[in-house]
Design goal:
Length: 153
């Protein structure tokens, strides 16, 4: 599967095939935006153990990511010193749902059995062998996930 990175360059997700990944739909204008800092810390602490955070900006929830890809990258770098791959803005629900999120949602529904993404900062933990192990609601912080990563990696 190929997705455009934040610079608009096609990027094969196969390059992450031998790493565990936390896939997150992010936004720069929401109360949970501060989770960028925790995502950065996860990347710092676990990259050498075969782990990556993959961030996918999304503007489908309350117009919380209205900027261009360049605006998003500037925000993530200047405000949070992001150190993980950020991709081009996508849709996670509806008829224009990107292929990655179609797959993630088909593999792991939320706690109520719904496949649709409820809001930004929904997170999916994908194992090194490509299995969707867990889905976390937006309120689950990167620090909460760190506890699971210690057991998993």
């Amino acid at each position: 599967m190929t997705m455009d990175d934040i610079h608009g360059q096609p990027t094969s997700l196969n390059q992450f095939a031998d790493t565990a990944c936390l896939v997150v739909n992010v936004a720069s204008r929401w109360g949970l935006t501060s989770q960028y800092a925790g995502l950065r810390t996860l990347q710092e602490n676990y990259a050498d153990r075969g782990f990556n955070v993959l961030a996918f900006p999304c503007n489908q929830f309350g117009n919380q990511e209205p900027g261009t890809d360049a605006d998003i990258l500037e925000f993530a770098k200047s405000k949070y010193n992001s150190n993980f791959p950020i991709f081009s803005k996508i849709e996670v629900n509806g008829e224009n749902t990107c292929e990655l999120y179609q797959w993630l949602k088909s593999e792991k529904a939320d706690a109520e059995g719904n496949s649709d993404i409820s809001w930004n900062f929904t997170k999916f933990l994908v194992s090194k062998d490509g299995q969707v192990l867990a889905r976390f609601d937006p309120g689950t912080t990167p620090d909460d996930i760190r506890i699971k990563l210690d057991d998993f990696l």
